[in-house]
Structures are given as C-alpha cells and as structure tokens.
Design goal:
This protein is α+β, with helices and mostly antiparallel strands. The relative contact order is 0.15. The protein folds into two domains: 170 residues, Beta-Lactamase; 55 residues, Arc Repressor Mutant, subunit A (Orthogonal Bundle), CATH 1.10.10. α1 runs parallel beside α7.
Length: 239
C-alpha cells in the first residue's frame, strides 16, 4: 500500500498481505472473487456481501458469490430487483471504490422498494461497492454492506479497496482470460488482438465465418467485454 491508510490494525495489515499473496498465486480456472471475498469483507469490517460479473449479452449481473445473505433473497435480486436497482449502475459508472451514499442519499434509498423489499430483508444498510474494469471489460464487482446501527463505511475502507484493486484486476484477468475460455476461444481472441478481421480468422483456421462470430460472442460473454475491441484490448493486456 503506497498511501498511508489509517485505522488498520496489525492483524488487518497481515490479512491484507495474505489476500494480495493469494491473488498473485492464483492460476487459470479459479474464481478469484470466491477465494478472497470473505476475507475482503472481514478487512472492511463488513457484515454482508455479494459479488457479480456483468454479462453484456444478457444485460444482467450473473455468477453470484455471497457472504451472509440468503440464497432466496439473492435469487429475488437476480430475477427482479437488479432491473429495478436505483444505485448499482451509478456505482458501476464510477469504476472505483464508492460509498453507496455518494450516488443516492440515505434518506432517499430507505424509501425505495429496492431497500425495503430487498436490502432490508437481509439487514443491509450501509454499503460500499467496487467495480473492477480492464479498459471496457467489466471483470467483476465487490458489494460490501454493514447492518443498521453499525458505523458507516469511510475513507479507510475506500483506501483499502483502492489498494487491493490492481491485484484483484490482475488475478481476474489471469484467471478469466486464460482458464475461462476454451482453447479455440483463446486462439480466436489472440488473433483479434493481433488485428485480424473475423473473415481473416475464418480463413486462417479453416472454419466458417458464423462459427468465428459464435466463438467471439461466447468469449465476450465469459470475459464481460462489451464488444470485439474490448476483448482484443483485454487479451493484449493480460498478464
């Protein structure tokens, strides 16, 4: 951590170092979020949490990882409330660790259906979110909450998330863009990164143009990239 972060105990500093070390060791076919999520919540002194990956093709958050939240309530979010969410897209647009209160005042949030029929059911009240991007590729998010009556999240918590973000981003890229794609999808994504057109790829690999487009669409879905250019940029920058 380059910046000085106040109000961090010795055990929390050790936990931070352990989280970073685990992220740096992760290889393909591992969900980096699941490996560290509970400890990140502990580091931020949180009570609850959920993590999703944005699927650009279905326009929905998927692949939930959660802590201390009822699975039935998460299903309600996935099937209904994410499409009636008053703050998550504003938080996502920040592309950095952000307090929920920064995008919607508390007195407005607590009057919403989203709060009363979703958040309050599990006891979520104070929130901080971090959305991890690589260029235009949405790699995943961390949504961490405290119960009503607990202290608000503060600058300390934002600083900790900001310090973790580059390590999380590298791990998500390394795990998702190598292990998450099939060998053919990796091959095609690498050709895109080299500047090949879809027709060039079809000729080079001896497969149909439509098949190439299907592989690209699948690769974008898995990596959270919104378009072909974002996929190429993410592949070019991967560790």
């Amino acid at each position: 951590m380059a910046a000085v972060i106040r109000d961090v105990s010795g055990s929390e500093l050790r936990l931070f170092g352990d989280i970073v070390a685990r992220l740096e060791r992760l290889g393909p076919e591992t969900d980096a979020r699941a490996v560290i999520f509970n400890d990140v919540i502990s580091l931020l002194r949180g009570d609850f949490g959920a993590s999703y990956v944005w699927n650009a093709r279905s326009n929905a958050f998927e692949e939930a990882v959660s802590f201390n939240m009822a699975r039935s309530n998460l299903r309600r979010y996935e099937e209904w409330y994410q499409f009636r969410d008053p703050m998550t897209f504003a938080l996502r647009a920040r592309r950095r660790a952000t307090l929920v209160d920064e995008v919607i005042p508390r007195h407005k949030l607590v009057r919403t259906e989203f709060y009363n029929d979703f958040l309050a059911r599990d006891g979520l009240h104070h929130g901080v979110n971090m959305f991890v991007f690589d260029g235009d590729c949405d790699l995943g998010d961390f949504r961490i909450w405290r119960a009503k009556g607990r202290p608000d999240f503060c600058a300390r918590d934002l600083d900790l998330l900001d310090a973790l973000e580059p390590h999380v981003r590298r791990a998500l890229l390394r795990c998702g863009l190598s292990g998450g794609l099939t060998p053919r999808e990796c091959e095609i994504a690498a050709l895109i990164a080299r500047g090949c057109t879809d027709r060039d790829i079809a000729r080079s690999l001896g497969i149909g143009f439509g098949t190439v487009r299907t592989h690209i669409a699948n690769a974008m879905t898995k990596t959270g990239c919104a378009n072909r250019a974002a996929l190429a940029a993410a592949i070019a920058r991967r560790p």
